[in-house]
Write a structure and sequence with these properties.
This protein is an alpha/beta fold and 582 residues long. It has helices at residues 2-7, 15-47, 52-101, 104-110, 112-154, 161-203, 205-210, 214-267, 272-313, 376-382, 406-411, 427-431, 440-449, 453-457, 476-489, 506-519, 532-535, 555-561, 563-579; strands at residues 335-342, 353-360, 365-370, 391-396, 399-400, 413-416, 425-426, 466-467, 494-498, 524-529, 540-545, 548-553. Helix 6 runs parallel beside helix 9, helix 8 runs antiparallel to helix 9 (272-313) and helix 18 packs across helix 19 (563-579).
Length: 582
Amino acid sequence: MRASRRLARFLRPYWHWVILAPLLMILEVSMDLMQPRLIQHVIDIGIAHHNLAYVWHTGAVMVVVALVGTVGGMGCSIFAVLAGQGYGADVRQALFDKVQSLSFGNLDQLETGPLITRLTNDVGQTQELVMIVLRIMVRAPLLMIGGLLMAVLTSAKLSLLFLLLMPLVLVLLWFIINNIFPIYSRVQARLDRVNVVLQENLAGVRVVKAFARAAHEIRRFGLANDELMAQNMKAVRLSAVTMPVMMLLINAGIGLALWIGGISVIAGGLHIGQVIAFVNYLMQSLMSLLMVSMLVIQVSRAEASAVRVLEVLDSEPQLVNRPDGVVPRTVRGRVAFEEVSFSYSRDEHDPVLKQVSFVAEAGETVALFGATGSGKSSLAHLIPRFYDVTEGRITLDGINVSDMREEALRAHVGIAMQEAVLFSGTIRENIRYSRPEATEEEVIAAAQLAQAHDFICRLPEGYDALVGQRGVNFSGGQKQRLAIARAVLAAPAVLILDDSTSAVDMQTEAKIHSALTRQHAGQTRLIIAQRISTVLNADKIIVLDDGAIVAEGTHAELLERSPIYREIYDSQMQNRVVAHGE
């Protein structure tokens, strides 16, 4: 329960509901405990003495008591739900806020599928526990203790049955607690796997269809689904055993009470009403233990979920945003890499980048060129500090990027990635995402620069056209142009185009770069590309191979002295000749 207790801090804003729910439950339990005693009086006084008036009077009291108890129970349920819903909403919000504060490295470790499970299913389990605790956790102990006390007052002799039954029930509860928590931990892990497979398939459904791999993916999902079902079945089997055993103990206790009580009635030691009242109190006490057994199962499941929720909430961002970080007033855009090495695993023996050093002067267009896996995108992601360097440093206008506040750094560094991510909403909202206060004229100007204005205007709704989830209603080239417009609208001092025109034809790509040069002459641009045509007019081309710089210069210079660059150039030019039938 340690993890669940730590999450209890989210109940503080709802303390009044948390207090009112148990108070109303106390009222309901008190009324429930009065009923058997009233039944005893009806039998032993009213019926035994043929006093119909007493029966009617006591019956009326029982109705009032039942109504008061009903009001208490309903009020408890309402306030428990209010507290639980508020708690769940706050935990989900805290988790989402935490995810937003985490660095790329943290998110790589936590993964998307498990995070979705924690934000939905795991939070739901802990929320359900709160609502159950405010009802059953209060009701069960009160009913058990109250029933026991009232049973002793009714018949001390019959109350000895508790000494026989209680140890058996407690042993059963101990068995449940020790066996069910590990099972539910495995259930949540299997649910993670199901969500991962599902998320991958929904995101990559076109790839699945393109390669006719639906049967393979069905088998993969089926395997994950079967593993989840198997773990759930283990939990269900344990729960299924618990209920009949508890009912067996309850019924055995009632049978013994009736047998011993019946003998005492015949012998004149007890009245019939006392026996009936005692049986009711015995049943209330033992049923409360049954509630506890059900609660234990829910607690075990919620505790496993609470541990997973806290794993996210306790995560420390790998990149620390210094509160005293530098906030430069103006940024010219000079970017310098000084002996930079980087590894995603922080393992110095497996670096993605190795001793990289170069300078992009303010206003220069620098192209990062190389084969797939050469480290181009990794290098670009270090400038806005998505990751921290393993060795060396990166400076912006002479300031180490790790010494700057993240907000200030990223306000001056814009990036358009190869995989253009769009959000549900309108085209205007997606372009304006980088600068919400931008005017309509500025949005249109950014779209024109990105060569997106024409295709937007051909849409019936224009800039008000809705973007489907992840931009499914647009082509790859259209999505990339919208992403470029979004990056350009922020007017950053440094603009990074991470292979962001790979799905755009060369003529449109040339227009985009020409417009950038013409309209943002003082902007520093880092262009990541695999096509020679993209980098021809760059002020400087940096050739990367296996994470290291192997050549640097202009296009003409590299053709003369870089065998790797010349080999790639000859290969691509030859392919163009073949493609155009020249």
